[in-house]
């Protein structure tokens, strides 16, 4: 019996699970090419809803705002998450480290309504303080891009910290120790050795941050002001009213972009791994030849 | 003092302090202090003002004294007729599902989250196990296939089910057209659609931690069990299940805790009877403009969730320590 042969039960469950995950998406994509105005009745092939979406300025503006927030907050979250992950994995015990570890992962499990509510109440307190203060009045800000950025950064940072911390924990510390023995300063060690080694984790953390930020509705709704609606907010208010063929189109476009990106990234990473393995095998062979000689 | 401790002491520099301080301060200001403010406002009274709640601490202008006015009314409202509500909620033969809207929604949220977690575990375990036992060359691809829907928009995935399940939805349309049913099935705006879409949305959160745990398992243990005469079912319960305990707990927490506060899915597919606490908080804040009540609801929700979150941390830390060894 081959080592990796799955029983019929496991194969069935895997198949059912994948079908469960994909059937709704496939149906959504198929019906995006529906001619009929009724979303659930097939009326022939057409791409007219694609044209409608392309001229829908509300959705396009919201998408652009979402994209900008996602990039900016993921960048900030990557920096904060790398620092936090490094502190947790390398410095470990410091004053308040337990509280720190708790705060880092709490936003991941905390329901969005609580995170959103509490951040909004803080922001309002700060706004009131700034409005009433004569010295700092010029710092006053309205809810919008900036406040959403604060919320998304905090949320994304939690996930990115976990990714980077686990990468650092797995990492062999001997390279860093060798550099230390050779007299390199910590900052140099970090930039020359540690950072390149954790670069894949940073990249995947950044992508994860983008996804989380683009997807968040609840925290955003608490933190956004009038005139700043992100894409999920527009989608939510549209689908609450009922089915809308433009949403099928939007979903199809998103699935296509995300699918292509994820598969391309994975393909690239797999090729890197095989390349590294081949190099290692080659080095081993050379070594063996040298030893035999 | 061990050598590593000495080395750590010698190499600690001011730079390290900044490494800790920047994220620490960020979280303190934007995550912890906001909770303290929620706690504070939960003891205030609703007022017609901006902001719409009363100050807790006021200074008396005549005497220069501090007045602290703690208002427990929000908590009292939430817990009114606690015992009678509780007994009628737990009684399966009672018509009224408890007469306290807040307690009822807390109960419904926990029930829905538990159901979701349980179904995710039942479905997710065999899937995670299958991937972890699959040929290593296709493991990554399968994992990617599980994760791919997670990377696409959450709202649009919920929307996909709205189109499928509705009264005039795609499933009902086809079943009617082929004469399998004469009346549309009641698939939407009820507990069925709520649980189905919750499971759909949270399933990857269960599969991933289970997979990371199961893939680490040593095959030789199962071979040894089989050599000693254990059947596959016995071997599963004696070896695989206990070894994956950490994954089960991590996965269950990752599903249960956010599911309790879920707002979007009940709002879109749950219907009016399946009110969850996230929605009640939302309504108290946005519709009734009652910030103190919304804060009190949030505080009780946090207290309810502290136990599972603490458990989650305990196991997460243990796993990391084991991984480091």
From TrEMBL, chain A:
Keyword Flavoprotein: no
ABC transmembrane type-1 domain residues: 63-267
Residues passing through the membrane, by range: 12-33, 65-88, 100-124, 144-168, 189-214, 249-269
Alphabetical keyword list: Cell membrane, Membrane, Transmembrane, Transmembrane helix, Transport
Stated family: Belongs to the binding-protein-dependent transport system permease family. CysTW subfamily.
Pfam families: BPD_transp_1
Entry protein name: ABC transporter permease subunit
Family matches, as PANTHER family: PUTRESCINE TRANSPORT SYSTEM PERMEASE PROTEIN POTI (PTHR43848:SF2)
GO cellular component terms, A-Z: plasma membrane
TrEMBL record, chain B:
Subcellular location(s) of the protein: Cell membrane
Matching SUPFAM superfamilies: MetI-like
PROSITE patterns linked to this entry: ABC_TM1
Xref: CDD domains: TM_PBP2
Keywords: Cell membrane, Membrane, Transmembrane, Transmembrane helix, Transport
Alphabetical GO biological process terms: transmembrane transport
Domain ABC transmembrane type-1: 106-312
Transmembrane segments: 21-43, 106-130, 142-167, 187-211, 291-312
Pfam family, one: BPD_transp_1
GO CC terms, sorted: plasma membrane
Topology within the bilayer: Multi-pass membrane protein
Family of this protein: Belongs to the binding-protein-dependent transport system permease family. CysTW subfamily.
Protein name: ABC transporter permease subunit
Source organism per UniProt: Neisseria zalophi
């Amino acid at each position: 019996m081959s080592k990796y042969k799955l029983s019929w039960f496991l194969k069935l469950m895997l198949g059912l699970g994948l079908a469960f995950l994909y059937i709704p998406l496939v149906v959504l994509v198929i019906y995006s090419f529906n001619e009929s105005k009724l979303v659930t009745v097939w009326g022939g092939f057409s791409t007219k809803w694609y044209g409608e979406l392309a001229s829908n300025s509300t959705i396009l503006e919201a998408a652009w705002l979402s994209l900008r927030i996602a990039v900016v907050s993921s960048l900030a979250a990557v920096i904060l998450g790398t620092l936090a992950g490094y502190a947790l994995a390398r410095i470990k015990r410091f004053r308040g480290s337990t509280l720190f570890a708790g705060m880092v992962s709490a936003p991941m499990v905390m329901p969005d309504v609580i995170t959103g509510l509490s951040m909004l109440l803080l922001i309002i307190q700060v706004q009131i303080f700034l409005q009433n203060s004569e010295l700092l009045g010029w710092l006053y800000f309205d809810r919008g891009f900036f406040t959403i950025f604060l919320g998304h950064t905090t949320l994304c940072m939690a996930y990115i910290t976990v990714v980077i911390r686990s990468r650092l924990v797995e990492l062999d510390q001997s390279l860093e120790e060798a550099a230390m023995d050779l007299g390199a300063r910590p900052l140099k060690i970090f930039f020359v050795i540690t950072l390149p080694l954790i670069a894949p984790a940073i990249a995947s953390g950044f992508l994860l941050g983008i996804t989380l930020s683009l997807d968040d509705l609840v925290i955003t709704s608490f933190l956004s002001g009038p005139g700043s609606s992100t894409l999920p907010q527009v989608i939510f208010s549209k689908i609450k009213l009922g089915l809308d063929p433009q949403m099928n189109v939007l979903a199809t476009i998103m699935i296509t972009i995300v699918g292509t990106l994820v598969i391309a990234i994975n393909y690239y990473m797999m090729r890197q791994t095989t390349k590294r393995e081949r190099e290692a095998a080659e080095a081993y062979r050379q070594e063996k030849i040298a030893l035999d000689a | 003092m061990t050598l590593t401790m000495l080395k750590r002491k010698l190499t600690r520099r001011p730079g390290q302090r900044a490494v800790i301080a920047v994220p620490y301060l960020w979280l303190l200001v934007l995550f912890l202090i906001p909770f303290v403010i929620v706690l504070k406002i939960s003891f205030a009274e609703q007022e017609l003002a901006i902001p719409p709640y009363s100050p807790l601490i006021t200074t008396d202008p005549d005497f220069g004294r501090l007045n602290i006015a703690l208002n427990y009314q929000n908590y009292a409202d939430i817990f009114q007729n606690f015992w009678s509500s509780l007994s009628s909620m737990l009684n399966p033969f009672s018509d009224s599902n408890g007469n306290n809207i807040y307690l009822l929604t807390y109960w419904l949220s926990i029930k829905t989250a538990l159901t979701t977690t349980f179904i995710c575990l039942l479905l997710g375990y065999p899937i995670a196990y299958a991937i972890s036992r699959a040929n290593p060359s296709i493991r990554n691809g399968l994992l990617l296939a599980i994760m791919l829907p997670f990377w696409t928009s959450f709202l649009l995935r919920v929307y996909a089910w709205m189109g499928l399940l509705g009264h005039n939805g795609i499933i009902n349309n086809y079943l009617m057209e082929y004469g399998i049913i004469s009346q549309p099935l009641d698939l939407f705006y009820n507990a069925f659609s709520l649980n189905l879409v919750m499971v759909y949305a949270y399933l990857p959160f269960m599969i991933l931690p289970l997979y990371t745990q199961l893939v680490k398992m040593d095959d030789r243990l199962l071979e040894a069990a089989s050599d000693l005469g254990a059947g596959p079912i016995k071997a599963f319960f004696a070896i695989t299940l206990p070894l994956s305990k950490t994954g089960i707990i991590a996965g269950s927490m990752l599903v249960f805790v956010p599911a309790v506060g879920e707002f979007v899915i009940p709002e879109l597919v749950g219907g009016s009877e399946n009110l969850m606490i996230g929605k009640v908080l939302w309504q108290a804040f946005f519709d009734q403009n009652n910030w103190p009540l919304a804060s009190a609801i949030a505080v009780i929700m946090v207290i309810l969730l502290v136990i599972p979150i603490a458990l989650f941390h305990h196991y997460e830390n243990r796993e990391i320590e084991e991984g480091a060894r």
